[in-house]
Design brief:
globular; 12 strands; Serine Threonine Protein Phosphatase 5, Tetratricopeptide repeat; 56% helix; five-stranded parallel beta sheet; 4 domains; single chain; alpha/beta; Rossmann fold
Length: 819
């Protein structure tokens, strides 16, 4: 074997942790060529990783003894560079133990060595590994890693804090106390350090000192929700109920809405303990409402209203709860009763105006509620007065109650309603925040720097997968990207969606976590002096709609994360898809429509987890033809119910798979009643053909796509993520594009991959294709094979990125000309 071959084999052995073999091969290399320094570096490394540090040191020293001062300096620098590379290589390979051993060996070569970037990379990787161990409840192993980290950076209070909390979790309270006191010594300002100390003192039954410590936490950070919870809990244990109630009410005045649910619950417990059932019902209702336990909230709010009728907030939440459980008439009756008591209240009027069923009984009901929605919107706008600060605050409160989310599922062009509501919200925001509604100019020196693009998101952990490709593939030399996560997510919580969120940290220049408070959001975004701001999810949440009516950047856009026009006067462009939009699409948008190439988004492919489940594991018949109907139930309108029994009539083996509504069993039951009626009109029993499944894990859901035979798309609002998943699983898709973009997403994706034979032009053709796919196994397999062959076209599209970058540059140029 040649010298080079010996060396390559030695490196392979080293990479496979076969150190004895590597050492033998490297010694043979040195017998062939004793002057090659690299062989010495690798031989010393092999001994080092074999935990024979003395031998490694002797080998490297033997090289230095052969040279003069100048050569020794050069060789030392080469060895240091070699070791740095090996540290980073082992970090990349997740061999963190090896990386740490090699990093520490660098100080043998140069005791004064400094490389903050390499140290940071090593520490971050060790921290990520340790947090994973902790999350998997391997606390003792996590502690060992954190101790290794602190051996590298002993003066970082964050890791002393985390070490302490892990000791606390395994009930080693003395060690936990020792570690947290070290953290406090290093960072006496941190509220988190004192909070952990409070937890430890509680466990040690030192309640008096724990109370003082939690008070110190709240003084340092008045929004520290868990400190209020523990402080109030201690008072309740000591039967000092009034003090507990005072603590909880102070919390409600300071913490964000997203954090209030446990405080509401604890207040309910406190009032219940002193026999005040009315206030207990009130706060239990608020807690359930915040946690989206809507049916439970209804029970508590109804109980509260039996004795108290003067709380507008309860009427608002109970009205919304009735609506969300598909009880629109109960909602209308309740709010009309409340309006007799408070005839001018805008919050009540907004709840009344926005009432729409989740599941409609028939087509006439859709028309009734659409007309009612539009009529009451006109009346709401006319009744809105913004002359006083109180009126402005009430109006602002009213627009944070709900969005027009369910309006879009009727399958109609909603531009007029959206524009009217957008203008209404804009007028309210202009009165509340006039300084944030003024037009902004582009920096005239913009050509001397990168273009600054911002993305503001409430659903980064889920919908963010749509626009991650925009960040990943954009030209980093031309664009500087900012991500604003306004979900209330704690960036220090390493256990929640860490892996996916980390993608945004990697692929953006700036990732910022902001509280949901509008003042914090606006000041943070404006300080960054963006050129373009993209509201990724306008219309999904009432936190976003008011923001989209402000002016936080010279150019503002939205996209089809929620595929309906925003209606906001301050959103300039709607970033959409050329493959999905119809020819007359601009008629559907208040913004200027931008038809980006292909789908507009560069979707990431994904790997399939190993899953050996069979049909029987999902209660499915082995001989059935499985039609997957996986859309949210409110996407299915009553005029299309006949589709399912029409297919079943011609394919007796058909089994339609729906999923229970995430809004609860009331919605699912309402849909079942409607489907039952449709099947009875064909003299069929829907239970013979329809199966409703509960929520599946992602792994099971993807496996289900592989087990199914056909994907049936919905009509008025087609599949998006679900269509992408079906294509990835090569599951044949039947779709019939509608007249607006949100009814054409599956159509666009199928055109993207060149599988158009299952696209219908009419409902009758849709039924025909669905039946043929079910009965004609050879054709179904041919479609599946074609999808499998072409599905790669759907992913990692770069043409849309080029189109997006061209839009950014052209829009900037156009804006500069106009100023």
């Amino acid at each position: 074997m040649s010298e080079q071959a010996l060396f390559e084999q030695a490196k392979v052995c080293l990479g496979q942790d076969e150190y004895e073999n590597a050492i033998g091969l490297l010694e043979k290399c040195l017998e062939e060529n004793s002057k090659e320094l690299t062989y010495y570096w690798y031989l010393g490394l092999a001994y080092l990783l074999q935990e024979n540090e003395e031998q490694a040191q002797d080998i490297w020293l033997s090289v230095f003894l052969q040279g003069n001062l100048e050569e020794v300096e050069q060789w030392t620098n080469k060895l240091l560079k070699f070791l740095e590379i090996k540290v980073q290589e082992n970090i990349n390979k997740k061999k963190l133990g090896n990386a740490k051993i090699i990093y520490e060996a660098i100080f043998i070569v140069n005791a004064d060595y400094e490389n903050p970037e390499l140290l940071n990379n090593l520490v971050e990787s060790l921290s990520y590994f340790a947090s994973g161990l902790s999350y998997e409840n391997q606390k003792k192993d996590a502690i060992e890693v954190y101790l290794e980290i602190l051996n590298l950076i002993p003066n970082d209070s964050r890791y002393w804090n985390t070490l302490s909390f892990n000791y606390y979790e395994i009930e080693q309270y003395l060690k936990a106390e020792e570690a947290i006191k070290k953290a406090i010594e290093l960072d006496p300002v941190s509220a988190v350090n004192y909070y952990v100390l409070g937890l430890i003192l509680e466990k040690q039954e030192n309640k008096t000192l724990a109370i003082k410590t939690y008070k110190k936490v709240i003084k340092k950070n008045p929004k520290f929700i868990d400190a209020y919870k523990h402080l109030g809990s201690i008072y309740l244990q000591q039967q000092q109920t009034n003090k507990a109630i005072e603590v909880y009410k102070n919390a409600l005045d300071t913490v964000s809405t997203i954090s209030k649910a446990p405080i509401f619950h604890n207040l309910g417990v406190a009032y219940q303990s002193i026999g005040n059932q009315s206030l207990a019902a009130l706060y239990f209702g608020h807690s359930a409402y915040c946690n989206k336990q809507i049916s439970i909230a209804i029970i508590h709010f109804e109980e509260y209203l039996k004795g108290c009728t003067d709380n507008i907030d309860v009427y608002v939440k109970l009205g919304r709860s009735y609506t969300l459980t598909n009880q629109p008439l109960s909602a209308i009756n309740l709010i009309e009763k409340a309006l007799k008591l408070f005839p001018n209240n805008l919050c009540l009027k907004r709840v009344d105006q926005s009432i729409l069923p989740i599941i409609y009984n028939d087509v006439k009901e859709i028309k009734f509620y659409r007309d009612r929605f539009s009529r009451l919107l006109t009346e709401l706008i006319k009744s809105c007065s913004l002359n006083t600060s109180e009126e402005q605050k009430e109006a602002f409160k009213s627009i944070k109650i709900s969005t027009n989310f369910y309006l879009g599922y009727h399958g109609e062009n909603d531009i007029e309603c959206q524009k009217n509501y957008g203008k209404y919200v804009y007028e309210i925001m202009k009165n509340m925040y006039p300084k944030w509604c003024q037009l902004l100019s582009l920096d005239k020196n913009i050509h001397q720097r990168k273009i600054r693009i911002g993305y503001i998101s409430l659903h980064l952990h889920s919908l963010g997968m749509l626009y991650l490709g925009w960040l990943k593939y954009c030209d980093k030399n031309k664009f500087e990207t900012y991500i604003y996560d306004i979900s209330g997510y704690d960036e220090n919580d390493n256990n929640k969606n860490l892996a996916f969120r980390n993608n945004f940290k990697v692929h953006s220049d700036h990732l910022k976590f902001i509280s949901g408070e509008i003042e914090d959001i606006c000041s943070t975004v404006l300080d960054d002096k963006l050129d373009i701001l993209i509201f990724t999810e306008t219309g999904l949440d009432p936190k976003i709609s008011p923001l989209s009516c402000l002016r936080l950047a010279p150019i503002q856009c939205t996209s089809w994360c929620h595929p309906i026009t925003s209606g906001s006067p301050n959103i300039d462009y709607f970033l959409s898809s050329d493959l999905i939009e119809p020819e007359n699409a601009q008629e559907h948008y208040s913004e200027t429509l931008i038809r980006l190439p292909n789908l507009g988004f560069s979707i990431e492919p994904f790997s399939f987890p190993n899953n050996n489940k069979k049909r029987s594991d999902f209660q499915l018949r082995d001989n059935s033809i499985l039609y997957l109907c996986c859309q949210a139930l409110f996407k299915y309108l009553p005029q299309h119910d006949y589709i399912f029994p029409s297919i079943a009539q011609k394919n007796k083996l058909a089994q339609f798979i729906f999923f229970d509504s995430f809004l609860g069993p009331v919605i699912t039951d309402s849909f079942k009643k409607r489907i039952d009626k449709a099947f009875k009109e064909f003299n069929l029993n829907y239970e013979d053909y329809c199966l409703f499944l509960g929520k599946l894990s992602l792994q099971d859901y993807l496996k289900f796509n592989e087990l199914a035979d056909i994907f049936l798309d919905s009509f008025s609002w087609s599949g998006g993520f679900s269509t992408k998943d079906a294509i990835a699983c090569a599951l044949p898709i039947v779709t019939c594009p509608g007249k607006i973009m949100r009814a054409r997403q599956s159509y666009g994706m199928l055109n993207m991959i060149g599988v158009t034979e299952t696209i219908a032009e009419t409902e009758a053709e849709y039924i025909e294709i669905a039946v043929r796919l079910g009965l004609d196994h050879e054709w179904r397999q041919a479609v599946r094979d074609k999808m499998a062959e072409n599905k790669h076209r759907l992913f990692n599209d770069r043409e849309c990125i080029k189109g997006l970058e061209a839009f950014f540059q052209e829009t900037i140029a156009k804006k500069l000309k106009l100023t």
